[in-house]
Amino acid sequence: MTHNNQQKPVAGEPGVPALHRNPRKGECQACGLPLQNARRKYCSRACREKLVYKLDVATNLLRAIHTRYATFSFTGRTLALNVVVWGASEVYSFFWEREAGAKPADDLARLTEELGREWWRKQNQSNSRHQAAWHVLGMAKTRLVPLGQVRPVSVYSPRVPSRYLTVLKLSSDDLFSENPGVAIKSAFRRQAHNHHPDKNGDARMFRELHQAYMELLAWARDPLVRNRQGLPQKWCYNGRRWVPPMVP
């Protein structure tokens, strides 16, 4: 792959690591810069929206090469686009050398533009979209990334307001335990002992505890869960759209 008449390295050549470290908690998920507020995921709304837009544009290329799953990640030196196509279990890895001072979104745009030009060149030459797709895939490296690092996973969480869990000092794991009703009742007893009005506790806090207790017991009798697909610390394409990284 070339850009501005300079050869861009690909995986397996000097200067391009096969493994990428993705942004972690405390780093912007769109550019990797440190965050002043560790509770945030992005350094700015504009930074996030720019990357989301470039990923959406890249979706056109992914569909042209019959992509089922894909991931996007980056380091300070390179970025990687890993692709799994329909009917195959092999991972095709495209690497691109980053430009100094550029955002990952800009480097992604350059990679997809280069691959897109190659797709159109082959399609015009062969008059075959199928041949164009395999021509682009032939530019990738294989056998570097296992399928499990590209295929999205499902993460289930209880569909209840998080404040109820906070009030009773419970976690999602407690609700998915073998007997969530017991966990809820035990948590309520512990907190009620500290906040009961008869023991000089705060009456408002006790009412909140009781409301959380009743709502969570109702959930335990008829559980509703939220299913989110994605991958930890990676932008993931699930065959329909891109989803942001799952940050622990």
User: Which descriptor suits the 3D outline?
Assistant: elongated
Question: Main beta sheet: strand number and arrangement?
Answer: 5 strands, antiparallel
- Tell me the structural class: alpha+beta
> What's the β-strand tally?
9
In terms of per-residue confidence, which ranges show pLDDT below 50 for 5 or more consecutive residues? 1-19
Task: Describe the protein's architecture and organization.
- Strands 5-4-3-8-9 form a 5-stranded antiparallel beta sheet. A two-stranded antiparallel ribbon has the order 1-2. Strands 6-7 form a two-stranded antiparallel ribbon.
- The protein folds into 2 domains: 2-151 and 232-243, no CATH class; 160-223, Orthogonal Bundle (Helix Hairpins), CATH 1.10.287.
- It has 7 helices and 9 strands, in the order ββαβββααβααααβββ.
- Strand 4 (78-85) and strand 5 form a beta hairpin.
- The chain has helices at residues 45-64, 104-126, 129-137, 162-168, 172-175, 180-195, 203-221; strands at residues 2-3, 6-7, 67-74, 78-85, 92-97, 153-158, 225-230, 235-237, 242-243.
- Helices cover 40% and strands 17% of the residues.
- With 248 residues, the protein is α+β, with helices and mostly antiparallel strands.
